[in-house]
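User: C-alpha cells in, sequence out, please.
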C-alpha cells in the first residue's frame, strides 16, 4: 500500500532561479519516509529493532520545476526487498496539475547496531516494507 505525504513549497525551499532547489527535494523525500514509517508503526518499536536501515544510494530524476506555494504530493512505496537491502520508490507530483516533478529510488541496507555490518532485513522492518509493495 502506497503512502502519500503533502508538503507545501515555502520560500526557504526556493533557489536563485525561483524553483525548489534539488537538495530540498531530498529533504522532502526524507520527511515523507519518516512519515511513512511513523504512520505504520510506533517510534518505540522502530527504535528498538536490532537491525536499523541506513540509506546507501539515492537515484533521482528531476523532471519538472516546483515553485513557491505548490502543494507537492510525495508517493512512497516499496519497490523491492532483498535479503539485506530494500529499495523504496518515491514520486513527487504537483497536486494542482499532476505534473511529475521527481522520480527517485532510495536503497537501504539493514545493519547490525554493534558491528555496522549488513544483516538480513527482518522483523517489523520487513513487515513494514512488505506491506508497502
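Assistant: Sequence out:
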Amino acid at each position: 500500500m502506497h503512502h502519500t505525504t503533502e508538503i507545501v513549497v515555502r520560500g526557504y525551499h526556493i533557489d536563485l532561479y525561483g524553483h525548489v532547489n534539488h537538495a530540498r527535494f531530498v529533504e522532502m523525500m526524507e520527511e515523507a519516509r519518516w512519515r511513512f514509517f511513523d504512520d505504520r508503526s510506533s517510534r518505540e518499536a522502530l527504535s528498538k529493532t536490532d537491525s536499523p536501515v541506513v540509506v546507501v544510494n539515492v537515484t533521482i530524476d528531476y523532471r519538472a520545476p516546483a515553485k513557491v506555494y505548490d502543494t507537492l504530493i510525495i508517493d512512497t512505496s516499496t519497490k523491492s526487498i532483498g535479503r539485506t537491502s530494500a529499495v523504496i520508490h518515491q514520486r513527487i507530483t504537483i497536486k494542482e496539475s499532476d505534473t511529475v516533478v521527481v522520480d527517485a529510488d532510495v536503497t537501504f541496507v539493514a545493519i547490525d547496531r554493534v558491528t555496522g555490518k549488513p544483516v538480513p532485513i527482518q522483523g517489523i522492518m520487513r513487515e513494514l516494507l512488505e506491506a508497502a509493495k
